[in-house]
Amino acid sequence: MPGGGLGYFNPAHYDEAQLSLIAIHRLAADWRLRAQAGLGSQTADGTSAGTYALELTLQGRLPGNGRLSAHLGRSNVASVSGGGTGYWNNYLAVTLGYPF
Questions:
Q1: Tell me: the pLDDT tens digits for 6-49?
Q2: pLDDT, position 3
Q3: At 70, is the secondary structure helix, strand, or coil?
Q4: Does residue 72 belong to any structural domain of this protein?
Q5: Overall average pLDDT of the 65-78 stretch
Q6: In the beta sheet, which residues pair with residue 57?
Q7: Is 56 exposed, middle or buried (0-12, 13-18, 19+ CB in 10 A)?
Q8: Host domain of residue 25
Q9: CB–CB of 39/51 below 8 Å?
Q10: Number of domains observed in the structure of the chain
Q11: pLDDT at residue number 61
Q12: pTM attached to this predicted model
């Protein structure tokens, strides 16, 4: 594969379990901050690895009945698929919604 990639991840046997704690804080009447932290384990074709995931979410209302949802997270889930111990999945997702 060009660039040394491993190709499509499709194990014959995959299991994942995670236990998470969630905390929610109301910032204002229409805004809240949510934090989630989880630890777990994953196994792909007999190879196991510990996992963790962290996520912060900000949700609220915008003028004109709009909605905002912003997610910032980091995890090492899928490190067993060839990413190894240094594998990280960092993400930022923002969603704006307005009725029409």
A1: 556 677 888 889 999 999 999 999 999 999 999 999 888 888 88
A2: 44
A3: strand
A4: yes
A5: 92
A6: 34, 71
A7: middle
A8: 12-97
A9: yes
A10: 1
A11: 97
A12: 0.74
